[in-house]
Amino acid sequence: DAGVIQSPRHEVTEMGQEVTLRCKPISGHNSLFWYRQTMMRGLELLIYFNNNVPIDDSGMPEDRFSAKMPNASFSTLKIQPSEPRDSAVYFCASIIGTDNGGNQPQHFGDGTRLSIL
Amino acid sequence: AQSVTQPDIHITVSEGASLELRCNYSYGATPYLFWYVQSPGQGLQLLLKYFSGDTLVQGIKGFEAEFKRSQSSFNLRKPSVHWSDAAEYFCAVAPYSSASKIIFGSGTRLSIRP
User: Fold this and answer.
1) How do residues B2-37 score in pLDDT, each as one tens digit?
2) Which of A30, A32, A43 to mutate to test the interface with B (most CBs of B within 10 A)?
3) Which of B6, B11, B12 is nearest to B74 (CA)?
4) What residues of A are in the B interface, CB distance below 8 Å?
5) Distance (Å) from the C-alpha of residue A14 to the closest C-alpha of chain B?
6) What is the tens place of the pLDDT at every residue in A10-31?
C-alpha cells in the first residue's frame, strides 16, 4: 500500500512568494496532521483534520499559514507570504479512524524541505 | 504539564554493540508510548508501541522497549546494532483520549562506529 505522499520533496523560493505544500493521506485514513520540524523547536503540530474538517489549528504560527482539506485524499498547507524563518521540514501524517484515541500510531510522509531565501 | 525527555542528544556506538536509548515521560496517567525512527530525508517510522499488558514490547528491526511505571521510563534497546540503524530516534507519548495530543521528545541521534 502507498504511504502518505507529500509533494514537493524540496522547495526553494524567495521570501514573499506563496508556497503550497501538498499531502495525500493513506487511503481509508480519516485524520490528517501537519507538522513542522526544525532544529530549534523539534516537531510541532500545526493543524489536524478529522473527516476533512479542521479541528485544532492552534499550532499554526500566524495568519500567513493556512491549510485546507477539500476531500479525504488531499490536503494543502499554504504560506503566503513566505519568510526565511518559515524554512523547515514540513511533515504530513495520517491515522486510521478519527482522533478518538491515542493508541493509533501516526503514519508520516517523507516531508517537504522548504527553504525560503 | 505533560512532557517527554530524551536526555541523550547524540550517542555513538560500535557496530555489533548493544544499544539503549533513554526516554522519560511526565504524565498524569499511563499514556500510550511510542518509539519512532527517522532516517535522513525521510519521515518518522513507527518502531514499536506500548498500550497495556506485557511491559516488554517487541518492535521492528530487532528493537524492543520496556515500560517501567515506577521510573516513568520507556527505554529502547537493541542487542546488536547495525550500521543501518544510524538515524534519529524519537520517543512519544499520547493520552488515551486523543492521538492529536501526542508529544514527541526532542530526539536522540544515533551514530554507528564501524
Assistant:
1) 789 999 999 999 999 999 999 999 887 778 899 999
2) A43
3) B6
4) 4, 31, 33, 42-43, 45, 48, 55-56, 91, 93, 95, 99-111, 113
5) 22
6) 999 999 999 999 999 999 998 9
